[in-house]
Amino acid sequence: MVMYDALYSWAKHLQTLKHTQSPPERLLLQVLHAYLKPSGSRKPPAWVDGLKELIQDQIDTNLTLSLTELSESLDVNAAYVSRTFARYFDDLSFGEYICKLRIEKVLQLLQNTTYTLTKIAYLTGFSDQSHFTRIFTKQVGQNSSEYRKKRVKGKADTKG
């Protein structure tokens, strides 16, 4: 009942907002999907696996991924892929899913390299550092420089 009340309140009072904007809302959405997964769900179409593979193969090299180009290479109608994309990709649109993958790559680079934030933004396909900072803050809940400082401080504390 607690989960039901939380979801009802969320839907009733925040219906004008996009529901996957902040990290707490993302967590709530993940919990919802984990508990409400249908037991007899249908197997996703073959193009879903192909699309996942294409996105993973091209996310690092092709900084201008296009759903139209990807769907053409799979020989599936782009409008159909666009319409059903969220069903198979964590309830995210194509653009949101690509942003999520890029932010995951950013987090890896922040943890494992000493690249500047500008270079990380460039390497992960963001148009400029301000766009990168805005998306990172929206996805992670804090800006990238704060995140990096906390990571460095945390590593220094564990070495002592």
UniProtKB/TrEMBL annotation:
Keywords: DNA-binding, Transcription, Transcription regulation. It comes from the Bacteria. The keyword DNA-binding applies. InterPro entries: Homeodomain-like_sf (IPR009057), HTH_AraC (IPR018060), Tscrpt_reg_AraC-type_HTH (IPR020449). Residues 49-150 form the HTH araC/xylS-type domain. This is Helix-turn-helix domain-containing protein. Pfam families: HTH_18.
